[in-house]
Amino acid sequence: MACDTNPTGAELLVATLVRHGVDTVFGVPGDTGVILYDVFARHTGALRHILARDERHAGYMADGYARTHRRIGVCEASSGGGAVYLAGGLGEAYASSVPVLAITSDIHRRSRGSGAITEIDQEALFGAVTTWCRTAERAADIPALVAEAVATATGGRPGPVALIFPEDVLEEHAAAAVPEGDPVLPAARPGASEFAVAGVAADLARAERPVVFAGGGVHASGAWRELLALAEHGALPVATTIHGKGAVPEDHPLSLGVAGGNGCRGYANDYLAGADAVLIVGSRANSTDTNGYTSPPRDPGVRVAQIDTDASRAGRNFPGSVPLVGDAATVLDQLRDRLPAAPAAARAAREADIAAVRDAWARTAADELPDPGEGRLQPREVIRALHRVFGPRAWVVADPGTPTPNLSAYWESAGEGWRVVIPRGHGPMGYAIPAAIGVAVAHPGERVLCVTTEGSLAMGVGDWETAARLALPITYVVLDNTSMGWIKMLQHLFLERRYFGVDPGPIDPVPLATGMGLPGARATTLDQLDVLVKESVGRQGPSVVHVPVPEHKDAPPPVAPWEAVLTGRSTGRPVY
To answer: Identical fold at 194-361 and 372-566?
Structure first.
């Protein structure tokens, strides 16, 4: 994109974004941003603007785009309420280490301190949900600030950054060189200390029961092949967090599937709990990821190492562990070079052990569930029916609540991509509807499955119109248990069934969908679900399928702490 010899700040901003490989911005216009939108309008051939219906949703769109595309996602909002809403859409990206550039306009510099209608300290506002935040005080500074923002968002531990532009700076003319940059993640691939790598490789080689525990950092690094190569070379079983789901193909003989407190196949937790050497790759390994630090345990007899790009996070939750600070793909290759190939007998024994526990779990998971009645379907069977239609290579975006544990346990992903996107940084309701739009924009022509709930629908429904306007190939499946089911389950298990504040009125997704131009229908049998989902896949644009399901207290999902209470093994409420 050519830039005038005396461009405005807004023109410099757009030119620098384009020179850094940015081709999409998700946003909502406002008073202080009209100059920027005038420049957007003149450069639609180089930079596509996606109009969202809510600034939070613009942030979630950029998040979904970035996770599955491994390029920085860009969102935009104006001052005041727009910036406040956008901050709410960045918390998940911050906690999940997703590279997002948030651009906001602000009041005129002369109006600072005057009580202007949209005045707020945006740097303070964004401070808790970004890794870096700056205000452009001169138009001439804009190209360098954009370059620094992109480099910060994609370098080291990725995360959201914010750039704030007073409206008069966007109008100000200035001559400035426009640098080039790269929006791709990761920005660099440093290795870890060879001494530390050698020690960890020796620990894995000596272990009788080694295991790899992979998180979202594998996806951020694009380290799928390196992880699989190491696992196959050393016969290392691989469990994942929810964010790490699909880090290796989940039907692989060495795959244990998802572990942790939410959505685990029980044998994955058992395997980690009994491990004598654990390699954590790109995960916070927090209490939920590790089922209360029991899988793996904080035990001096268990040798733990952790690969992370952030030195402050590597080994933080496991005292005495070995930090391997570097890019996941690079460090996994370093380990493979140092690790001897596993003996054939050890390989055969480990694969046989995994096959046995997987088969036993599959038999239990195939047990017929009771009919929930009233036209409701069991969530487990809904997920399996969807998998039969979409297959393991589908892009899937899901909300908290019913979708999360059921997808984590019962959906098998083919790997080689962050194909199952579930927000586990903060777990915000209302994430999936807009995030699915970001995924669909990142992968043109590929159908996206979005599994949401009626509670999240209440927070995100406006952007069904966006999906319809853009004719995006998204199948929205709404699992409706008519309650704030997760919180109600906590009250059921731990507060002697004292239910309060968890039973709002009903929401009917079908007329909401049709009112915004999406075909919508309700499935009350698995046969109906199969027909409706296949019809949605055959359409050009988005569609909605409403599926009534039972509450968690009536059909408990695979949540390890809840299962422990229901089977009498525990009475305590999980501590996050």
So the answer is: yes
Q: Does domain 9-171 have CATH number 3.40.50.970?
A: yes
Could you tell me the end-to-end alpha-carbon distance of the chain, in angstroms, rounded to an integer? 48
Nearest-angstrom CA–CA distance, 576 and 565: 16
Specify the 3-state DSSP secondary structure of 537.
Answer: helix
Distances (CA, A) of 225 to 66, 233, 422, 423, 479: 20, 12, 22, 24, 34
CA distances from 562 to 221, 314, 557 (A): 33, 29, 9
pLDDT digits (tens, 9 = 90+) for 80-104: 999 999 999 999 999 999 999 999 9
Q: What is the CATH number of domain 372-566?
A: 3.40.50.970
Q: CB 125: neighbour CB atoms within 10 A?
A: 18
SS3 readout for 128-142: CCCCEEEECCCHHHH
**Number of C-beta neighbours around residue 215 at 10 A:** 29
Nearest to 562, CA basis, from 488, 511, 477: 488
pLDDT digits (tens, 9 = 90+) for 136-183: 999 999 999 999 999 999 999 999 999 999 999 999 999 999 999 999
Q: In Å, how far are 111, 267, 392, 420, 477 from 179, measured between CA atoms?
A: 31, 52, 41, 35, 44
pTM for the full predicted model: 0.97
Residue ranges per domain, the chain? 9-171, 194-361, 372-566
β-pair partners for 71 = 184
SS (H, E, C) 220-234: HHCCHHHHHHHHHHH
- Is domain 194-361 classified as CATH 3.40.50.1220? yes
